[in-house]
Amino acid sequence: MKSFICCLFLVIGVLPLAFAGHNYGEALSKSFLFYEAQRSGYLPHNQRVHWRGNSGLNDGKASGIDLVGGYYDAGDNVKFGLPMAFTITMMSWSILEYGRQMAASGELGHAMDAVKWGTDYLLKAHPEPYVLYGEVGDGNTDHYCWQRPEDMTTSRAAYRIDPNHPGSDLAGETAAAMAAASIVFRRYNPGYANELLNHAHQLFEFADKYRGKYDSSITVAQKYYRSVSGYADELLWAAAWLYKASNNQFYMNYLGRNGDALGGTGWSMTEFGWDVKYAGVQTLVSQILMSGKAGHNAPVFERYQQKAENFMCSCLGKGNRNAQKTPGGLIFRQRWNNMQFVTSASFLASVYSDYLTSAGKYLKCSSGYVSPNELLSFAKSQVDYILGDNPRATSYMVGYGSNYPRQVHHRGSSIVSIKVNPTFVTCRGGYATWYSRKASDPNLLTGAIVGGPDAYDNFADERDNYEQTEPATYNNAPLIGVLARLHAGHSGYNQLLPVVPAPKPVPKPAPRGKVTPAPRPRVIPVPANAHVAIQQRATSSWALNGKTYYRYSAIVTNKSAKTVKNLKLAISKLYGPLWGLTKYGDSFIFPAWQNSLPAGKSLEFVYIHTASPAIVSVSSYTLV
After folding, report:
1. How far apart are CA 36 and CA 380, in angstroms?
2. Burial profile 230-259: b = 16 or more Cβ within 10 angstroms, e = fewer
3. Element (H, E) at 51
4. Which of 150, 245, 388, 508 is the Cys-Cys partner for 53 at CB 3.0 to 4.6 Å?
């Protein structure tokens, strides 16, 4: 049994290489629309998401400061400073790595607009060197109400950190965001870039001099964005970005002197996100080392790099402590908004792949050396899963593909646009009328990446299922870089290291087995039934260890005028894993997220094995 399981995971590991055909450019364009839907404040004349209106126009007024603008973090109407700053950092990093590719797609302007919308707000939130506003609104009162942003009646109190109420993690992340963004704008708007860099210097000094966790000062954030990892990682993260932005040796030496004390050389992580930055800073330091700029810090930076490579190996399943994956191959960290970890890991894998390629190096894992292309293939597999190559054939980007979430946990998208119906939506009335409504959202939240499936690839598209259907700005921020990279193919690498031209012909990713072209789709007949039809087709194949594996897609369609319930399918001559149905004794029944098949509707299940198609037939069902 153990050998079969190992073989199964090996097959799943190469499975994404057999898929093809996603429009990464389209997904990239739609990602930026999501940021326009998340805007707070006075919307600009070139706003493309027309169902949104102005909101939060008195933010900061009660505290005597202008805090209008910025982004709502997710499906609520609060502006949380820590995840917002992380979002800006990652958008900036995506541009710095793959800005040329974004420009080729016509999206660089939208990317820079998205960053500037955030940094304009962060500049307002930093009115004095040692004062930073880290939240507007509070989750408790906000979550009590279900209102579109334009109708908010909830508290808009502003919360800050200062020397008596420190927040090194918040100040450090905001310093990183401003430093990274300053590089983005250096060529296009040098005055603005200098302003951002000056604020970044001040914020780093504030973070380092007055140390403390921000959620001990802004306690209303604890329930929503608690800083579990503390502030040590943000201090290193900020120093790395300030070195890149300023080339000031002080910050490189800070990384060298404090690598051990602040955990940069000690923590070996399997996650990267708005709270835990170690894998990110380790990747940045590795790039400094590989570019030959580490100087006397090289011995310490090598220990950073070892931890960075541990992260990469864990994503590939080739480390001593590997990231958990779903049966369908998705990185899995937690049920609540797991997709944030998927997109961030994919981004780090993409940039590290390019760093290695540019430096002519390989990744060293406990199982041996790994080519850079294998890291990029991993990132592609995760993105393809997000866009629909998964056991449910569901796109977890709203508006991409034909099967995507329709009941997103998001106040603005779930309530009729104020431009369509300006009738005021009350605090609790929104729950009664719109939250509980079992229908598609009236406003399409195009480009949003929702929380995603559970550990078994299951997903329920329901508005109250906030763990799986709520989007977040920091889900998309790393993804835009990977999408730009994949859309460009092998036409160029990153902008932070000297570019090594790709050989001709275009190289293929280095899989663990030889990938063969997908066979021509063919329809495979199955036993007929008057009410339930089943069609199968082989969608792809690949060779591995002397065997040819086939991926089959089966579509079950209700041809009757009634709803099919209690469906049981008999499947014989099945020799591999199957997704999209539930095993029940000797039969297969509806998956956990579905209990019926309405008239004219279809469901899909997929399976993989090395033989001809399995024999699928209808055992029983009822019509109601």
Report:
1. 26
2. bbbbbbbbbbbbbbbbbeeeebbebbbebb
3. none
4. 150
Separation CA 218–CA 554 (nearest Å): 52
Structure-block tokens of residue 1: 């049994």
Quote the mean pLDDT of the chain. Answer: 89
Place of tokens 């090996």: 10
List of long-range contacts for 5-8, beta carbons under 8 Å, 24+ apart? 8/576, 8/577
DSSP string covering 346-370, please? HHHHHHHHHHHHHHT--EEETTEEE
d(CA 302, CA 429): 57
Q: Which residues are catalytic?
A: 409, 461, 470
User: Sign of dihedral through CA atoms 165, 168, 172, 173?
Assistant: negative
Nearest partner of 490 among 480, 479, 500, judged by Cα: 500
d(C-alpha 171, C-alpha 386), whole Å: 32
Cα–Cα distance, 303 to 268 (Å, whole number): 10
Helix (H, G, I), strand (E, B), or coil: what is residue 540?
strand
CB atoms within 10 A of CB 368: 9
* Structural domains of the chain, ranges and CATH numbers in brackets: 24-488 (1.50.10.10), 532-623 (2.60.40)
Compute and round to an integer the Cα radius of gyration of the chain.
Answer: 25
b/e 52-61 (16+ beta carbons within 10 angstroms → b): bbebbeebbe
Instruction: Evaluate the CA torsion angle 410, 413, 414, 416 in order and state its sign.
Output: positive
Q: How far apart are CA 393 and CA 141, in angstroms?
A: 37
Question: What is the pLDDT averaged over residues 349-373?
Answer: 94
472: helix, strand or coil: coil
Phi, psi of 250 (to 5 degrees): -55, -40
| Relative orientation angle of helices 298-316 and 249-258, to the nearest 10 degrees | 70
Q: Are 319 and 313 in contact (CB under 8 A)?
A: yes
> What are 371-404's pLDDT values in tens digits?
999 999 999 999 999 999 999 999 999 999 999 9
Element (DSSP H or E) covering residue 314: helix 298-316
pLDDT reading at 5 higher than 60: no
The pTM (predicted TM-score) of the whole model is: 0.78
How would you classify residue 325: left for phi > 0, otherwise alpha for psi between -120 and 50, otherwise beta?
Answer: beta
